[in-house]
Specification:
The complex is a heterodimer of chains A (855) and B (83). In chain A, 43% of the residues are buried. With 855 residues, chain A is of the alpha/beta class. Chain A has a five-stranded parallel β-sheet. Chain A has a two-stranded antiparallel ribbon with strand order 1-2. Chain A is 58% helix and 7% strand. Chain B has helices at 3-16, 39-53, 64-67, 70-80. In chain B, α1 (3-16) crosses α2 and α1 (3-16) crosses α4 (70-80). The chains are: A alpha/beta (855), B mainly alpha (83).
């Protein structure tokens, strides 16, 4: 508050200043109220990731209010402090210290008083060394979790900074430099828009503060709306490439695949909106890109910051000198080619820093080549015919609007198709999409409705909201409330009183909108990725991509640690004997027989009841320590508590090996490995997915292994599958045979068990956080019933528990220690209810026994 | 609006916004961030400025830092002309 001394000696208060400050407080109350509601919505809808909704948002929203009331000179420093606090909240103080050391080293080098060329060369050398570290070639003392964020900040943002340094005049403004490098949302969004440094400085509080804040809130609401729409598409409309058979499915696949990009636009709106709360009035990042009327128009509307980055760093420096020497056409073709090549390379470079491996696929290259050709052709056409810009008289004519609509339909359709190519793992996958078997009226109707929406939207869109609109008219709180109405409705319908009155299907859709979770296809893909080496993940299949970013390269498979040896036949692998390694954070030891278990005698001692436990990684105990697998826990408890009289002791032998399928288990039963230990009972344990075998057969055919069993040879021959075919082709042929493969595999398992006098029980356990398709589960039950295998059904073993607390990690959904304990407790009860399986009777008194040795 | 701004405004309206209401294009209308000047139009404008005002414009000067509004364009031209 300003005050001055009057001639009478009294202090006069400047009422204008008082009024302004009260006005500020009132305006901030309006902003803070909106932010409070926004925070509740973000947390209720679990937007993006826990780091974002539980840590970054409270810090950012609370910080923004405090930040506004600081003197202007302090605000940017406050933002830097909040950003670094955000990093510390997420990564911990030690990791942030490493992060700051690396940042300081890089910035210090870039600002050394030496020639720019030397600084540039040194920076490239630093990036190369860090690249080797990212790839795992050079060990580093900081956590692998730091890489995606570090890469996002210093490997892409630094390119813009180096370019700025080249032309920078005057002293360095460190508060803006550090604000820009450490932008608070970076900690939760490794896939971050390339914010231009010049723009970042230029737009800082260049308009009234509350207009900037209100715009930020408005954009965050828009971003959230995009993200909720994305969830709707992701959970209910996406299809896998192998699921496309009909015209309707093809159209659905193309539309849903393109619509998944809503996640990127949603995140970018959220990020840039959040930056507005600290005075950074950045322009919009996307502008109705689905309604683009030409390919250059598409390039200008989608990821506008990337376009600006490319234009500044690559296009203009190539185009400007060339246009003067060689004319427009040569300059345009060469500059566009350079820009597209740089875009392709930098996307792969970005992929490397985020995931730890380069993205070089034929479909990726093909996409950029096609887009580059379309961009050059479109630009040449625009240059020849001229471009109708918003605000001109022609934009208001019906003829122009119709033409715009028709062009937009063409661009949208072509983009849908090449987008499908881009996101297909292989060219074969992409081409297989279009080999549909039928086309019906629903497909035609879907195409026509989409075309109508795009055509009309593009035709009238520019009139309703011309480009530059955001720059001219900032939104009001009421405008934001109107935009937020659908979002608030989704939020409101989640409350118990309202929710209970809704139809079950609507409740199901609402639940999917309110939870960030893998859809069924990606959950299966994650599970299958464990067996098949994941190839289907791409930058727009959202949740799965996130999971893999989080996974990084600190989570090797057992064979990468030398824990298994290949058998070079249909069995695939077996555990090495006498292993003693750390696997996924736990000691992992095997006995002389290559079992993750204690050292048993080959034959059971008299009075011992022996149970062989067969299965895959769940049985082997991926993600838990020695002695904490469910079979070990059950064995210990039986020997400790002796609830059943009869045997002197119980021995549970763990035959589980990661990635084993029913065919592997058939082989170890058939080749005498199991019967050689003379078990009284064989428990074949598995969840629904690892009970199917098509991935195993596909691998066997691809590698040319002997299929060993006639039923496998007949099935493979009947669909014409053979070595040399692409994986997608083999999938297309063999996936339809999955039921037959499962049925005949279990028939053989049952036959071998009978021949070797093994009492076989199938134990069904579920995968935490994942529900298999009811059809597959029903199929499996029917197969087991038909084959006559006795069943212990533990599919509700996790009931009443938060399944997120039962998995090793979000990217590794094996049961953790608690999960194994639950399975063990349940299996113990199930076995007690079947004393004949334990070789005794519960009515006979028991005597204490000694537990078998454990590693 | 001074002579430089007036001159550039005429060029922009004639070249890129034929038929538009000139009063809509003010000193502060965002030209690049508002979507009126795309990359090729920015190059055309730069070449026009070089030829008409006898100045040289580098590729790094063709962004919104220098060419986003008529006021910025005029300032750039003034800074490059001999005093």
């Amino acid at each position: 508050m300003n005050a001055s001394t009057t001639p009478s000696g009294l202090r006069a208060i400047d009422l204008t200043d008082v009024s302004r400050r009260w006005g500020d407080v009132r305006s901030m109350v309006v902003i803070a109220a909106q932010l409070s509601v926004l925070m509740l919505v973000i947390q209720a809808l679990n937007i993006e990731n826990p780091v974002f909704h539980d840590r970054v948002i409270p810090l950012a929203f609370g910080g923004a209010v405090v930040h506004h009331f600081l003197p202007k000179a302090w605000r940017a420093w406050c933002f830097v402090a909040l950003s670094i606090t955000g990093f510390a909240l997420v990564f911990g103080v030690t990791q942030v210290a490493w992060f700051l050391v690396l940042a300081a080293a890089m910035l210090a080098w870039l600002h050394l008083p030496i020639a720019f060329g030397l600084r540039f060369a040194g920076w490239v050398a630093m990036v190369a060394v860090l690249g080797f570290a990212r790839a795992g070639t050079i060990p580093v003392p900081w956590s692998g979790a730091l890489w995606p964020v570090f890469g996002s900040i210093f490997m892409l943002r630094a390119i813009v900074y180096v370019y700025e340094l080249r032309y920078q005049k005057g002293p360095v403004d460190w508060k803006m430099t550090l604000s820009w490098f450490f932008m608070l949302p970076s900690v939760s969004f490794p896939f971050f828009p390339i914010v231009d440094f010049g723009m970042f400085r230029r737009t800082y509080y260049d308009k009234p503060a509350f207009a900037i804040y209100q715009t930020g809130v408005h954009w965050m609401v828009r971003g959230l709306t995009h993200l909720v729409l994305y969830r709707l598409v992701y959970q209910h409309l996406t299809l896998g490439t192998g699921e496309v058979d009909t015209g309707r499915e093809l159209v659905q696949y193309l539309l849903a695949n393109f619509a998944l990009y809503l996640r990127v636009s949603g995140q970018f709106h959220l990020i840039v909106g959040l930056l507005h709360l600290f005075g950074f009035r950045l322009p919009e990042t996307h502008r109705f890109f689905y309604l683009a009327a030409s390919f250059p128009d598409f390039w200008r509307r989608i990821n506008i910051y990337w376009k600006d980055f490319m234009q500044k760093v690559f296009f203009m420096p190539v185009y400007m000198p060339l246009v003067k020497k060689h004319g427009d056409t040569v300059a345009l073709v060469v500059a566009t080619a350079v820009t597209i090549f740089a875009t392709w390379f930098l996307h792969s470079y970005q992929w490397f820093w985020l995931l730890g491996r380069w993205l070089f696929t034929v479909t990726d290259v093909l996409f950029w080549v096609i887009l580059g050709v379309l961009l050059v052709a479109g630009s040449l056409r625009e240059r020849k015919r001229g471009r109708v810009r918003p605000g001109t008289a022609e934009t208001r004519t019906l003829r122009h609007q119709v033409r715009l609509g028709v062009q937009a339909i063409g661009v949208f359709t072509i983009m849908c198709v090449i987008w499908a190519f881009w996101n297909s793992p292989t060219l074969g996958d992409a081409l297989a999409l279009f080999a549909i078997k039928s086309w019906d009226w629903t497909a035609t109707a879907m195409v026509l409705v989409t075309w109508m929406l795009v055509g009309v939207g593009a035709g009238v869109g520019e009139r309703i909201r011309p480009p530059g609109h955001e720059d001219v008219v900032p939104p009001t709180a009421w405008g934001t409330l109107r935009t937020a109405a659908p979002l608030l409705a989704v939020w409101g319908m989640g409350f118990g009183v309202v929710n209970e009155r809704l139809h079950g299907d609507v409740r199901g859709v609402l639940r999917d909108l309110q939870v960030a979770a893998l859809n069924r296809r990606d959950a299966n893909e994650l599970q299958r990725g464990y067996y098949e080496e994941l190839t289907g993940v791409n930058r727009f299949n959202g949740e799965l991509w996130n999971v893999y970013v989080a996974k990084g390269n600190d989570w090797p498979r057992l064979q990468e640690l030398g824990g298994t040896q290949s058998t070079r036949d249909l069995l695939r692998v077996q555990l090495k004997p006498y292993l003693g390694i750390m696997f996924h954070g736990h000691p992992f030891r095997t006995n002389r027989f290559g079992m993750r278990d204690g050292d048993y005698a080959q034959l059971p001692a008299p009075g011992t009841h022996r149970v062989a436990v067969l299965g895959s990684s769940y049985v082997m105990g991926d993600g838990v320590a020695d002695g904490h697998t469910f079979e070990a826990l059950v064995e210990s408890r039986l020997n400790r508590e002796r609830p059943v009289a009869g045997p002197v002791g119980w021995e549970f032998l763990n035959f589980g090996v990661a990635e084993y399928s029913p065919i592997s288990n058939l082989m170890i039963m058939d080749n005498g490995r199991v019967s050689g230990f003379e078990p009284d009972v064989v428990l074949l344990v598995g969840h629904v997915i690892d009970m199917f075998t098509s991935h195993h057969v596909i691998e066997a055919v691809q590698r040319g292994w002997d299929l060993k069993y006639d039923y496998l040879r007949h099935i493979v021959d009947s669909v014409g599958a053979r070595q040399g075919m692409s994986r997608e082709e083999l999938k297309n042929r063999l996936l339809p045979m999955e039921e037959r493969l499962a049925r005949e595999s279990f028939q053989h398992i049952a036959r071998v068990a009978r021949e070797r006098k093994l009492r076989l029980i199938w134990v069904l356990i579920p995968t935490p956080m994942q529900r298999p398709s009811p059809e597959r589960e029903a199929l499996l039950r029917s197969v087991m019933a038909d084959v006559g295998i006795e069943r212990i059904d533990m599919s509700d073993v996790y009931r009443g528990h938060d399944e997120r607390a039962l998995v090793v990690a979000d990217f590794d959904r094996h049961p953790n220690t608690l999960g194994h304990r639950l399975i063990a407790d349940r299996l113990y009860k199930e076995l007690l209810a079947r004393p004949h399986l334990l070789g005794g009777s519960p009515d006979t008194p028991a005597t204490p026994a000694t537990s078998a040795a454990r590693p | 609006m001074d002579a430089i701004e007036q001159n550039v405004k005429s060029f922009i309206i004639d070249s890129f916004l034929p038929g538009a209401d000139p009063s809509q294009l003010t000193e502060e209308t965002p030209l690049i961030t508002g979507g009126i000047l795309d990359s090729l139009a920015t190059v055309q404008l730069s070449i026009y400025l070089e030829q008409h005002f006898h100045i040289e414009i580098g590729a790094h000067e063709t962004g919104p830092d220098n060419l986003n509004t008529l006021a910025q364009i005029a300032a750039l031209v003034r800074s490059k002309r001999p005093a």
